[in-house]
Amino acid sequence: MLSKINAGKFNKLIEITTLINSSQQDLHVLLTHIVESAMRLCGGAASSLLLADEERKALHFEVALGSKGNEVKRFTVKMGEGIAGWVAQNNKSIIVNDVAQDRRHLRTISRQVGYPVTTMLAVPMHIRDKCIGVVEVLNKDQEKEFNQEDLEWLEIFAGQAALAIVNARSLERAYSEIRVLQDRGPSGESFHTMIGKSPVMKELLRMVERVAKTDSSVLILGESGVGKELFAEQIHLHSLRSHAPFVRVNCAALPEGLLESELFGHVKGAFTSAINNRKGRFEAADGGTIFLDEIGDMPLSLQAKLLRVIQEKTFEKVGSDITVTVNTRILAATNKDIEAMVEKGDFRSDLYYRLNVLPLQIPPLRRHTEDIPELARFFLAKYMQANKKRFEGFLENAIEAMLTYSWPGNIRELENCIERVCVIAGGSWIGQDDLFPQTGTGEMRNQTKNQNLKTALNVFKTNFIRKVLDENAWNQTETAKTLEIQRTYLSKLIKELNIKEE
């Protein structure tokens, strides 16, 4: 046992324990902090934390610190391979003060990254006596040897790392259960969870709260898959009508004859199959909110009837001359260029102006890539539960691939991608090849293979500059001040990166 308590090390241990118990720290950041503290307190020049993938019988680098840390994270180690693999397989700690002479040492990684290791500490992380990973502290200085006290401190820090992982998994399960409960409205409707902490999403949600307090119509615009229905739900949930029904209608899913009956109802005998009187969606939403998705696909013949509902709150059912009055707020959405449709005469201008009282433009996913990791984790938790499968999370190369892919199908495409992974992937961790399999023939694989640093940097620059331009209303002078660069240089970047206002 530790012969003498070192005050500095003890204080660092208290600090890390406090962070773990706070439950507010990002797991990767927390594990990095633990490993960094262990490295410094044990006198190491580099350190790493590897997590075990049971199905693939391998270890991958979750954290790698030191001058070659980023290069090391490209590698995986088979169970039993190298010193870390031996520790994981045997579930035992080890001190190696002459790595070059140790037959277990895997020299491949050291040679490829150009970091010769001379001394090493390696300890397993335990959860219920099961090794879930390994923490290493390394030195390339031959004069710096590790001792038993160093090993005991590293074992304590490895225990803290294991505790952080246990807490993270427990929180994940709890949040998943809470989300299921939260996704039910007061009237029993099913609602989606809103995910997004980027500046552009926060600003949109602030606008939603302001818009929700009125009864005016809202037109929600954006590409397919950006989550227009989710924003309609948020408007309803933040409104005074939140206790009343939220009724959805997809105007593109039904032919004209059925759509009129679906919206306004019909009386018995109105047409061949009308064997009973039927309420329409507007009546069902009385006192609440109706969401008309794909409003651009509504036939012109129905647009006049809808305009009357907005203006007078009245309509007649199909086959009836009795006027029905409703108090229903209308939210509409489309991925089409509605103004162009008005100019061509495909959409009534008077209806457009009545719907467009409070327009809401939803950005594509490529405009708020900061939200991708959180969205991916949310969908992973959702489909793990649905498919009764368990994954530890995403490898770093998977996160990088998701951040550099353009997602033309937006959030819906990302969700479908994660759902597919949960059905077909094996192993404990999800990598780039799971998300974008080699057998795939779509744009995903083409965009993400052979990514180099320049490509990744250009993707980051494009998204970051566009975000700051948005925040400054595309005023290049103010944007340049925010970025702390010359305006002429900003203009050059905008041209080179082909950044355009959408």
Write the layout of secondary structure elements.
Layout: H1 7-22, H2 27-41, E1 46-53, E2 58-65, H3 69-72, E3 76-78, H4 82-90, E4 94-96, H5 107-113, E5 119-127, E6 130-139, H6 148-182, H7 199-212, E7 218-221, H8 228-237, E8 246-250, H9 256-264, H10 281-284, E9 289-293, H11 300-312, E10 314-316, E11 323-325, E12 329-334, H12 338-344, H13 349-355, E13 358-361, H14 372-387, E14 393-394, H15 396-404, H16 410-424, E15 429-430, H17 432-435, H18 443-448, H19 453-471, H20 476-483, H21 487-496
Parallel strand pairs: 7-12, 7-13, 8-9, 9-12, 14-15
Antiparallel strand pairs: 1-2, 1-6, 2-3, 4-5, 5-6, 10-11
Helix pairs in contact: 1-2, 1-6, 2-6, 7-8, 11-13, 14-16, 19-20, 20-21
